[in-house]
Amino acid sequence: MNFGILVFNQVEELDFVGPWEMLTMWRKNADGPENCLIVGQSLDPILCAKGLSINPHVSFATCPPLDYLLVPGGQGTRQEVCNPVLIDFVASQARHCKAVLSVCTGSFLLHAAGLLSGRKATTHWGSLERLRALGDVTVVEQRYVQDGNIWSSAGVSAGTDLMLAFIASVAGEAAAGKVQFASEYYPSPVKYGGFENHAQAPAYVRSPG
């Protein structure tokens, strides 16, 4: 089984590192996908949004057919949404993927690849109105959303919750529980600074508890 995570220049680090941690914990502790791959357009180093530099495992040309593909977000999506090579890679892999997932503004890359039209999806709170403006996506202000075989999440840290929910969906709650326990991922419910009352706070943040 092949699980690929797409990367590109100015990708937001935690958008893919959080899911990567859950994914590889799944492989190690609960018989997750044998091949976990970081995929870039080429094998050149990727400079992420906060300065981290990473090296893809495979390029578009050498990437095998994927069973699952995760597309993160970040400032780089604003350029990549107009990159026909990247968009074609997402669209062509999606044709045989069992599921495609996005984190943060990765949802705009899914939309450009023709995967979100007529579906429910979400994105980073700062881009919810941009996603609504596309006109053919039902925007849901939740931490993560599943619509058929397309999954999307809110921004940055939400990708970790997305991946755990995805693991529970495809491998069962026991597998997800092993991953959660091994990674010690039990987020604190504390909300700091009153930002749950911010005018742009998404509905899932404003909701009590």
Blueprint (SSEs and pairs):
Elements: E1 2-6, H1 13-30, E2 35-40, E3 46-47, E4 53-54, E5 58-59, E6 68-71, H2 77-80, H3 84-94, E7 99-103, H4 106-112, E8 120-121, H5 128-133, E9 138-139, E10 144-147, E11 150-153, H6 158-171, H7 173-183, H8 203-206
Parallel strand pairs: 1-2, 1-6, 2-5, 6-7, 7-11, 8-9
Antiparallel strand pairs: 3-4, 10-11
Helix pairs in contact: 1-6, 1-7, 6-7
- Helical content band: 25-40%
Q: Could you tell me how far the N terminus lies from the C terminus, measured between alpha carbons in angstroms?
A: 37 Å
Any idea what the CATH architecture is?
3-Layer(aba) Sandwich
CATH class: Alpha Beta
Q: What value does the average pLDDT take?
A: 97
How many domains make up the coordinates? 1
In CATH, what is the homologous superfamily?
Answer: Class I glutamine amidotransferase (GATase) domain
Strand residue percentage: 15-25%
Helix/strand/pairing category: alpha/beta
- Listing every helix as H and every strand as E from the N terminus to the C terminus, the arrangement reads EHEEEEEHHEHEHEEEHHH
Major sheet: arrangement of strands: 5-2-1-6-7-11-10
Regions with little confidence, pLDDT below 50 for 5+ residues: none
**Could you describe the largest sheet, including whether it forms a barrel?**
7 strands, mixed
Radius of gyration: 16 Å
